[in-house]
Design brief:
Blueprint: H1 4-7, E1 15-23, E2 27-28, H2 39-47, E3 57-61, E4 67-71, H3 73-81, E5 88-95, H4 99-110, H5 118-128, H6 131-142, E6 146-147, E7 155-156, H7 159-185, H8 195-207, H9 213-222, H10 226-240
Parallel strand pairs: 2-4, 3-5, 6-7
Antiparallel strand pairs: 1-5, 3-4
Helix pairs in contact: 2-3, 4-5, 5-6, 6-7, 7-8, 7-9
């Protein structure tokens, strides 16, 4: 988890936004307050560029005088690919924002446009201090897990299932579910962190009074690999038309 010091604490005195012309090369990007940067998308914009795509950038002027993009990082990237770093572009400049403010503003602006992926939204909501996201992140940090797509070491991508678990039983249910999975199959199996399996185990834990979670983990571990259980459950659903 990022500290409050890193996040910049509470906002300083915020000034009304103002419209200015700023140089593209003066604009910086902070990965903590943006969606994941796609150079492929920036190059696509550059290749298919016309000046009508410049639009108005949204920028945070920080205390050290540096300017960070809130909205427009891919347009910035496209202009840099076109060797137009010296170009002046219109920007709505905000002064006195904290990192939480920047992240929250990005989410609010972009949820109705080209949507950032669910993992980016979670990361940004953590920076913004949103309760559910920070609670989930605390548990993931305790288990040494990180949110990522693909087969990365100790990665988990089932953010929808993590939210379901958190809403069903808070940090306690999420923590217990992950502990059962780790005790059953260890910490390296990515299949064990499948979204459907997370929800199924969490549902059992939340619905069975005085459940012996140690015995549950032992039974799961003896009943085969998590991938086999997921396959069996999906086959059952296909035949019976019942939800997992």
């Amino acid at each position: 988890m990022m500290s409050d010091d890193f996040l910049g604490g509470e906002e300083t005195t915020r000034k009304p936004p103002r419209l200015e012309d700023v140089k593209v090369s003066d604009l910086r990007v902070d990965a903590y307050t943006q969606r994941s940067y796609s150079d492929t998308f920036a190059r696509h914009l550059a290749k298919n560029w016309n000046d009508a795509k410049v639009g108005v950038f949204k920028v945070s002027l920080r205390g050290d005088g540096s300017m960070y993009v809130i909205d427009g990082q891919h347009r910035r990237g496209a202009l840099l690919h076109r060797d137009q770093g010296d170009q002046l572009v219109p920007a709505l400049v905000f002064e006195g924002l904290s990192l939480r403010d920047e992240a929250a503003m990005f989410v609010a602006d972009n949820n109705e446009n080209r949507k950032p992926n669910a993992l980016d939204v979670h990361r940004l909501l953590v920076v913004a201090g949103e309760e559910e996201a920070t609670g989930i992140q605390r548990v993931l940090d305790e288990h040494g897990l990180h949110l990522a797509f693909g087969g990365y070491h100790r990665a988990i991508s089932a953010i929808g299932s993590l939210r379901w678990l958190y809403r069903a039983g808070g940090e306690d249910l999420l923590d217990t579910t992950l502990r059962v999975i780790e005790n059953a199959w260890g910490t390296e199996s990515r299949d064990a962190r499948d979204g459907a399996l997370l929800k199924a185990i969490g549902h059992v834990i939340s619905e069975v009074p005085r459940l012996d979670v140690t015995a549950l983990a032992d039974k799961l571990g003896k009943n085969g690999k998590p991938g086999n259980l997921i396959g069996d459950a999906r086959a059952y659903r296909s035949v019976t038309k019942r939800a997992l």
